[in-house]
Design brief:
ACD_IbpA/B; 150 residues; Immunoglobulin-like; HSP20-like_chaperone; mainly beta; A-crystallin/Hsp20_dom; stress response; elongated; Hsp20 family protein
Length: 150
């Protein structure tokens, strides 16, 4: 019997519980590069943090956009006007531009972002409206919609 590795499903989905969305994310994750590396942390029940290693990028080089349920993080280095030729003995720090997209679950909002020590931290929080939260129904109780109907 085959074991299915579901770890790609957890890479780019935050706060989503729908299986169909997870399968869709797995297809998109395979097409993305692995640069830049990132972590997704669960800080509390409804609080998350994405930490992305963006060494060499400054605050002005990074754009963060949230639209619908998609969080997009782009890094673009300005093109150098000087034709300075550098000679590397070893080059392990990438300077390439990147774009990383994350599918956010319903009601997940971006709370803020911070860039420090080469790490970009994006804080997320899930706010479930009261109407969507589960409610306990007592046995023997009856909900009356309109008292005029009696």
């Amino acid at each position: 019997m085959r074991t299915i590795d579901l770890s790609p499903l957890y890479r780019s989905f935050i706060g989503s519980d729908r299986l169909a969305s997870l399968i869709d994310a797995a297809n998109r994750t395979d097409n993305q590069s692995t640069y830049p590396p990132y972590n997704i942390e669960l800080l509390a029940d409804d609080q998350y943090r994405i930490s992305m290693a963006v060494a060499g990028f400054g605050q002005d080089d990074i754009t963060i956009e949230a639209q619908d349920n998609t969080l997009s993080i782009q890094g673009k280095k300005p093109e150098s006007t000087e034709q300075e030729e550098r000679k590397f003995l070893h080059k392990g720090i990438s300077e390439k531009n990147f774009e990383r997209k994350f599918q956010l679950g319903d009601h997940v909002k971006v709370m803020g972002a911070n860039l420090a020590d080469g790490l970009l931290h994006v804080d997320l929080e899930r706010h479930i409206p009261e109407a969507k939260k589960p409610r306990r129904i007592e046995i023997g109780s009856r909900l009356i919609e309109n008292k005029n109907d009696q």
